[in-house]
Design goal:
The protein has 83 residues and is α+β, with helices and mostly antiparallel strands. It contains three helices and three strands. It has helices at 14-25, 28-51, 76-82, and strands at 8-11, 55-62, 65-71. The chain has a three-stranded mixed β-sheet with strand order 1-2-3, with helices on one face. A hairpin with a 2-residue loop joins strand 2 (55-62) and strand 3. The longest helix is centred in the middle third of the chain and has 24 residues, at 28-51. It is elongated. 0% of the residues are buried. The model has no long low-confidence stretch (mean pLDDT 88).
Amino acid sequence: MWRSLPITVSVSPSVPLLLAAFVLLSSPLLLSALLLGAVLHELGHCLALRLLHARVTALRISVLGAEMQIAGRLSYGGEILAA
């Protein structure tokens, strides 16, 4: 089955600043909806990679989005599916 591998997670220092700005300038409901949408979006990428039998080794979160690093390579069709 799936072996448990450590995943390196790094968060850009600007992410907490952006979240603080959202808290100050908008409603908590809007912030919650945006964060939930972002998390579900990234989980969709994780599901596609899991279906392709790719192992995620690192996750980098920045203001512009998230980037997942995988072990090995995907075919062109696999890359299109994961993207």
